[in-house]
Amino acid sequence: MRTQKTAVMASLIFGLTLSACSPEQNWREVTFEGTALKAQLPCKPDRTTRSVPLGGVPVDLQVAGCESGTAIVAVMTAALQAGSDANAVLAGWQKATLDNARVARPLLDKEIQLWHRPGQLPLTGSVRIQAKGLRPDGEAIAMEAAWGAVAEGDRVRLVHAVLYDRKISPDMANTLFEGLKP
Fold it and tell me: Buried (b) or exposed (e) across 9-24, using 16+ Cβ within 10 A?
């Protein structure tokens, strides 16, 4: 009986060790070229930079994202032109993200909260949202997303992080959003 308990314990410890080493648990720091911004992602990210219209003006959007298990995780950043209305741009970005995930609106108060991290500008558009939406194939999806802004000389740098999964792990979401550092 004692040998059987020892074998079961050894199997459990081995299984936990393997799961702790899985790519889903492999958080790493990611930086963005030309900025002081740092983020934590749970997997090795793919990266791209694209010119996209934000606030009616083309900006270079840097994106780092990856798949971890069934989750899709991404962090994006773009510097606005001096004098741009950061709150208006954040509102447009939020609408586009929610529309893309086919999130029903209006959002409930419990689904949206102010998101002011140390070093970020205290804008009304800096929010964290938890919502349910749909993938392009119609499958239900949970989404957590946050938007914020930091001062960068005479410009403002916007930051957006998003996590999509069937069921979102609060630990994964908190590590992602708390890991964003200006």
Answer: eeeeeeeeeeeeeeeb
State the Cα–Cα distance between residues 33 and 30, nearest whole angstrom.
10
22, containing H or E segment = none
Euclidean distance between CA atoms 130 and 93, whole angstroms: 15
User: Cα 98 from chain centroid?
Assistant: 14
Cα–Cα distance list, 65 to 3, 30, 44, 116, 138 (Å): 46, 10, 8, 22, 22
Token pair listed for 165: 């999964």
Rounded CA separation 151/79 (Å): 9
Q: What is the reported pTM?
A: 0.84
pLDDT 10s digits, 120-156: 999 999 999 999 999 989 999 999 999 999 999 889 9
**Domains of the chain listed by start with CATH number:** 27-178 (3.40.1000)
The span from the CA of 147 to the CA of 92, in Å, is 11
Regions of the chain with pLDDT less than 50: 1-23
DSSP state of 23: G
Altogether, the residues listed in the chain come to a count of 182
Here the tokens at position 171 are 């630990």
Of 85, 71, 78, give the one whose Cα is nearest residue 32. Answer: 78
